[in-house]
Every structure is written in C-alpha cells, then in structure tokens.
Amino acid sequence: MWLPYRMKRIVYASYNPFTPEVWVGAHYYSSLMAKDGHDVFYLADPDFILHHIDRRRHVQEGCREWYYIKKRGPARVPEGPVQYLPNSLIPTLRRFWPFNTPWSALVAARATWPSVKGIARKLGFSEPDLFWMENVRYLYLVEKLKPGLLVQRVHDMTLASPAEQNIRNLFVESMRRSSVVFCMSKSLMDDYVSELSGDPRKVHYLPNGVSSEWFRIPDKLPEPADLSSIPRPRVTMVGVYEFWVDYQKLWQLARILPDVSFVMIGPVRIILPANKPGNVHFLGKRPHSLVPSYLRHSDVGLSIFARTTFTEYVNLIKLYEYLAMGLPAVSTAHRELSLIDAPWRLADSTEDFVRAIRQSLELSHDERKSLIDFARENTWEKRYETVKEVIGF
Known about the structure:
The chain is α/β, with parallel strands linked by helices. Helices cover 36% and strands 16% of the residues. The strands form three sheets. Strands 4-5-2-1-7-8-9-10 form an eight-stranded mixed sheet, sandwiched between helices. The chain has a six-stranded parallel sheet with strand order 13-12-11-14-15-16, with helices on both faces. It has a two-stranded parallel ribbon with strand order 3-6. It starts with 8 loop residues before the first strand and ends with a helix.
C-alpha cells in the first residue's frame, strides 16, 4: 500500500493531550510512530478559549494544565510528536443548551483560533502521508490537507449511542472514506463497525495493551507515602471517576469486606454518592509514571463499572497494566472482556466481586507470574507491529 520506507508525515487527530496523569492508546501509538522516525503532528481535542468560567474543581484543574499546553503552542513533547491543543471559540458544556449538543461539538472543532488548517500547513503537514483519525470532529481537515492515506481507529462507543447522531454519522462517513479501519473491540466490530465501514475486509481488530516499559520496572519500589498508612490487603483501581463507575456496588463491596482497603487512584469528576465506607480511599490523580509504585504495593487490581450500552464494549487498558505488575485483575463482566481469552476474573453481582477478590488474594507466586506472561504478549509495541503490517509502514 505504501512506498518503500522513508520518514512519513503523519497527522494524528485525537482527544487527550499529553499530560503526566492520563495515558491512552493515542499517546502510545503516536509516540511509537515518532520513535520509528516519522514526523507526527498530534492534534488534541479543541478547548474552549474561556473554559475557565466553569468553576467545577476538576475543570479548573484541567484548565490550568491545558492553559500551559496551549500557551506553548505547537510544541514537540518528550515522546516525539509535535502536540497542538487548539483554542475553540465555541464551548462544549454538558449542562447548557445548545452547547451540550452534537452541533456544538462539531462546530467547536472548526471554529478554532488560529485555524488548525493554517497551523498544520505552517508546520509542513499539507498533504501528509497519513491522516490517523480517532477524533472524527476533525474529519473536515481531510479535505483541507489531502493526505495520501486515511486510517481510522475506533476506540470509543459513540457508534452505539443514538443520542449522538451527528457524531455517529461522522464516524460512519470517516470509516467509509478510510482505507483501513482498526477497532479495539470485537463486539463493537460485530455489532457496528464491520457493516457500517462499507467493507468488512478493511476492518482489523486492534485491542488495547500495555507498554513494554512496564516489564522493566523493578520488583521492589518504594511504597508511596500516602499509601503506607492504608492497611493491607489493598484492592486498587486506577482511572477517571465519572458516571460510568458503579459507586453503589463499590460501597456494598467495601461494607462486605471491611478488612480490605479499596484504593482509588485518579481524578474524581463527579460528586460522590453519600455514605462512602471508611475503607474506600480516594487518593486523587497521580502521574502515570508513579502508578506502578501503587500497584507494586497492592494485592488486587479492580475495575467496577456500571453495565450500560457503552461499557459493554470496553477493552480496558488498566487490566493489562494490572496483569503486567503480576496483580490479579477483577472487573465487571462486560461483554467485550468475556470474549477475550485473558486471565482476569469477571464479576457481575456484589457477591461475584467478593468471591473474585477473595480468590485473587489466594493466588500463588507462580500464578501471578502467569499474569505477567499474558501481559507480555499484549504490548502496545506488538499492536504497533500489527499496524505497520496492515498499512505497509
């Protein structure tokens, strides 16, 4: 599909900017492309120029972080890509109509100042070799920049949401225009992507993974100070705490297992339900580079999401990271996770979670080693080799 090897110019249209706390698939793939010698323009989701008027604490924290990213303008991050977080003149606000509609989301990506198109051209990304599409709100740029190849990675569940019809339509259009479509979920492929792409032969399964750097982490790491006072055994969950977490089930679980400490690492972006048990500890966000220290001093890794149309398709990065640390992983029994031949334990009812956690605490050293072996076969680096083979890097 491609010419003989040379440095490629790649526009990578994504959502999450590079920050110390949150690392998702886009950060790994774009970094691996840059490490492979390609010139990558990493385009984050636009941020409303007056976003700071939203006084919620987590928004204010994000505003401060994003302010410094935007202030630098297009800048090369240590991982290699040139990152750009555009200012948008149109807000996207959940609580206020019409700025909580798909219309606003679409317009916000176009109404940037300065224009994304102008910045891309100025940096030499007119007619790039590859446009890697994750954030379909940037689909309009394909006509402006005229890439040699359009590839889409479907990594979220918008296709399953009738409430976001405009965005869903863009997903379908982007998939149909793409030469290759990667999808991180088998069930999402079966239910939507293969048919809506227009040609199932161009759709390829590309699940999430874990960085190979995790296998170079020493067995012995200092125990974080804020963890040392929390008694063991510790069941730890890493993530962003939003509406998708099943807090009621977590509270029930903690009450049934009063001798177990539940440690929650990551930003809290909602008001937590009342009556949180005393053995549930929210430590707040931590740099991703420090997460292994917390997992090294934990006993079980947890994911406890509500079961919804969206979450049934999830392929969770955190589970691979738990396993890479030799940590037994217990998760809600989402449909997608049940399709993967993996050593995580799946649970549905509170009683299922209690049983899975107790069984996990009993694992032997050899059984924990087998978890690491599984994770070692599921790295981002191996996923990237699949990408190169499919698109002809």
